[in-house]
Amino acid sequence: MTAKRPTFRRTTATALLLLSSCLAGPAMAETLQGALAKAYASNPTLTGARAGQRATDENVPIQKAGGRPAADVSASFSESILKPTISFTSPQRTVNAQAQLSVPIYSGGSVRNGVKAAKVRVEAGQANLRGTEASIFSQVVGAYMDVIRDSAIVSLNQANVKVLEVNLQATNDRFEVGDLTRTDVAQSQSRLALAQADLQTVQANLITSRENYIALVGEAPDMLEPPPVLPGLPATPDLAVQVALADNPDIASAKKAREAARYDVRVAKAGNLPILSAFTQAGYTNYLDTLENGTAGGGSQINKQAQAGVQLSIPLYQGGRVAAQVRQRQAQESQAIEQEIQVERGVIAQARAAYASWQASLQAIESNQKAVDATSLSLEGVRAENSVGSRTILDILNAEQEALNARVQLVSARRNAYVAGFSLLAAMGHAEADDLGLASGALYDPMVNYDRVKGKWFDWDYDAAPRPVATRTVDTLPQNANVSPDTAQQP
Predict the structure, then answer these.
(1) Are strands 302-313 and 275-286 parallel, antiparallel or unpaired?
(2) Using a CB cutoff of 8 Å and minimum separation of 24, what contacts does 165-174 make?
(3) pLDDT at 22
């Protein structure tokens, strides 16, 4: 069995995130590509999914074992404590050994179809692993962009607080000379208190985003660089759906699950077919010179035997058990068929919704940029008009709040557009490790383990004791809401 990606070859390939290397700044700065590479190597959800896939691989040699010879040896030693009163030949003690070899010849197709079902489930598991990769990467992108967004919002709110502090001082000065009223001072004080409360809220949001980033990536975010442009995004929702139907790993997994269920039906039907096997067995019994007629009558104290033959078992009636098992597997196959349609529906809806969200976010960026420009111009005008007495302090405060809101919405819209675009790539099946060009060494190939174990037959061929692969975050420091001065320019 070979793991093949869908024939509709992905066009986004390695261009995505390789661009981030061009955006790298200081040596300590983190890029989105670097964050994804760290998550790919050490995220426990992903490393656990790989371990689960390795467990699925073992179902193939387990099923193959049903068609291989089986040998066993048994031995016993018995000491007679109380002999039967009517027996004159019962030995005092006995050593007995038995050896048996059984070779299955025909099992009604249960082994063959069981192996086929196991192989198909390996392919389904590999598709699920691809889906897990895309899901983790989508979460990492979201966490990365959340940190950038919340850092920018904190910077904007800090700048707003400083402006309001200056406004309050200026209002107090003008009140002292009788140019303004107590109401103007109270309005400035109220707006500053609200801004300080908002700052505390957004600082808490930033800490939450940073902690979530640590949970996904394994390290604290440090000087995150702006993300690269997302290539390969579709021009229409119909094109997004077309690519998703061909490349989405969830659909591939559902198809393989349906195929495996069909083999399960054949395995169940084999319960009504004959079973043929060859066998050979040998026995050795030693009475250890305790067989009473052994010395007197010259009988042997050792008994040896060996035989070989063929055994045929033809089921005639099993109480309806096999028929019930067949009907059960048929119902499970029907369920798998319906689940494939359900997954297909979900992928179509996901692709269309992600496309709509991406487009709406792009439009929101354009509108919010216009709002930022307009509110900035309005704020300058209100301040100038206030200097000549045609505007009040409240007008300035409202204009400053509108300018802040517009900038915050612009930052959020940029974050939402990027996350929606990446989610669209994930729905299309184009957000996996081999699409992103991660510079983290060789990518994990599930076929390596499958090829290693699929033909194993030795009963003592164990692997080494499991050790953790994911990194722990217990030693990371609690995050704070400190931001660099230029963070407000991101994303």
Answers:
(1) antiparallel
(2) 165/192, 167/191, 167/192, 167/393, 167/396, 167/397, 167/400, 168/192, 171/393
(3) 34
